[in-house]
């Protein structure tokens, strides 16, 4: 491991890592589901509720003004984090699922029509499949899928054949939530742009915590992610959208805080983007905590985190091979930086997860909200161990020791 990576200091900032589970030290390897939170995030939410709680964009009193200020400063901070051209391109949402549904129901319903087609891939999370399936059925739109190669990576040789001048949207994940494959986004987007004028949506739920994101360099139209995947609380997320697209889109969820005027006889008129997409009372404490989470990530450096996780992945693969475990590894040849997907060949993933939990080891089991990907590998479920900035070699050693114990039980 890199000697100057401050792993001990980082781990000391995450109080839950001191917890014991079933009399064993917690080995938390379910980070692709949700990350743990550092003290600075936990305390910022508690401080906000103890001292500053109020509704943003509503009143003129001091606390409300402070909440509004927090919201808009965070919007600018997130814009800088992903290199958006302006803060008005950042919309606060509940999470990735919320953002994709917003795009499908606002942009999709108004700008995709009969005869058009949408392109996604077979590796997507259900959140990036179901909104498009529903839209395609309702509007009689063709929905195409980029097929997968044997290892679960995208078969990009098929990409050009799936795009034509009626392709209106390509929605694809930055990083597989199951096997951790990082998709070559720039290559994909360049191919799409040479064949069509399709809008590009990137599901960044998994990628945001592991790779530097530059939405201008990518030249994507939307990039969406959840705060809880990047050390912030649940219930807050980001939808980036190019400003010219956001201006054309209508609000999907309507209510208080987004109108210029409402009458009982005329159509309502709405305020400008991004605020027209943020109806109802905003999750200000989550927004405050999101800014502190991203500040924390920036203090470590996302490229340093990626390098650390990549080294951990190499160590894990080396140790798994060295121990000669009877595993089926689903991503042993790809360039995943932060997760291992596997099965003990004849055993249900739920059983493996339950047994590992007895040793204090937390992993994810089941279909991972990616049943089409499970079908590709002809399994009903997988085990997944996923890393974060605070994962260390001791975690990996305990994980592998747990697998050895389980293998011995099966003999």
Automatic annotation (TrEMBL):
PROSITE patterns: AA_TRANSFER_CLASS_5. CDD domains: SufS_like. One of its GO terms (molecular function) is pyridoxal phosphate binding. Belongs to the class-V pyridoxal-phosphate-dependent aminotransferase family. Csd subfamily. It comes from Blochmanniella vafra (strain BVAF). Its EC number is 2.8.1.7. Catalyzes the removal of elemental sulfur and selenium atoms from L-cysteine, L-cystine, L-selenocysteine, and L-selenocystine to produce L-alanine. Signal peptide: none annotated. Keywords: Cytoplasm, Lyase, Pyridoxal phosphate, Transferase. This is Cysteine desulfurase. Its cofactor is pyridoxal 5'-phosphate. InterPro entries: Aminotrans_V_dom (IPR000192), Aminotrans_V_PyrdxlP_BS (IPR020578), Cys_dSase_SufS (IPR010970), PyrdxlP-dep_Trfase (IPR015424), PyrdxlP-dep_Trfase_major (IPR015421), PyrdxlP-dep_Trfase_small (IPR015422). GO terms for biological process: cysteine metabolic process. PANTHER family: CYSTEINE DESULFURASE. It catalyses: (sulfur carrier)-H + L-cysteine = (sulfur carrier)-SH + L-alanine. Residues 27-399 form the Aminotransferase class V domain.
């Amino acid at each position: 491991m890199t000697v100057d990576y401050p792993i001990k200091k980082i781990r000391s900032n995450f109080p839950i890592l001191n917890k014991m589970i079933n009399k064993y030290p917690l080995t938390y390897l379910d980070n692709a589901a949700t990350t743990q939170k550092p003290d600075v995030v936990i305390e910022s939410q508690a401080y906000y509720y103890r001292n500053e709680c109020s509704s943003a964009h509503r009143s003129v009193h001091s606390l409300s003004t402070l909440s509004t200020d927090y919201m808009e400063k965070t919007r600018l901070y997130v814009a800088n984090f992903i290199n958006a051209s302006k803060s008005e391109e950042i919309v606060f949402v509940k999470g990735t699922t919320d953002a994709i549904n917003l795009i499908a129901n606002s942009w999709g319903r108004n700008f995709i029509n009969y005869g058009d087609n949408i392109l996604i891939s077979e590796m997507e999370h259900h959140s990036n499949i179901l909104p498009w399936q529903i839209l395609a059925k309702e509007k009689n739109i063709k929905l195409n899928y980029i097929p997968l190669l044997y290892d679960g990576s995208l078969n990009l040789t098929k990409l050009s054949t799936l795009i034509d001048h009626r392709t209106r949207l390509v929605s694809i994940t930055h990083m597989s939530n199951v096997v951790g494959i990082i998709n070559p986004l720039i290559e994909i987007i360049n191919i799409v742009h040479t064949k069509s004028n399709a809008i590009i949506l990137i599901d960044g739920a998994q990628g945001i915590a592991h790779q530097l994101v530059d939405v201008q360099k990518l030249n994507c139209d939307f990039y969406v992610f959840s705060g809880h995947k990047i050390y912030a609380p649940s219930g807050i997320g980001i939808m980036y959208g190019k400003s010219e697209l956001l201006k054309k889109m209508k609000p999907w969820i309507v209510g208080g805080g987004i109108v210029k005027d409402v009458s009982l006889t005329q159509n309502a008129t709405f305020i400008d983007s991004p605020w027209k997409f943020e109806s109802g009372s905003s999750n200000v404490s989550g927004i405050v905590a999101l800014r502190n989470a991203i500040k924390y990530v920036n203090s470590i450096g996302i490229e340093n985190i990626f390098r650390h996780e990549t080294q951990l992945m190499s160590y894990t693969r080396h140790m798994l091979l060295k121990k000669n475990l009877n595993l089926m590894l689903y991503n042993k040849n790809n360039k995943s930086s932060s997760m291992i997907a596997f099965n003990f060949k004849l055993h249900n993933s739920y059983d493996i997860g339950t047994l590992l939990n007895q040793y204090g080891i937390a992993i994810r089991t089941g279909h991972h909200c990616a049943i089409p990907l499970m079908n590709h590998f002809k399994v009903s479920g997988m085990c997944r161990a996923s890393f974060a900035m605070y994962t260390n070699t001791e975690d990996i050693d305990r994980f592998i020791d747990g697998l050895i114990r389980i293998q011995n039980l099966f003999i």
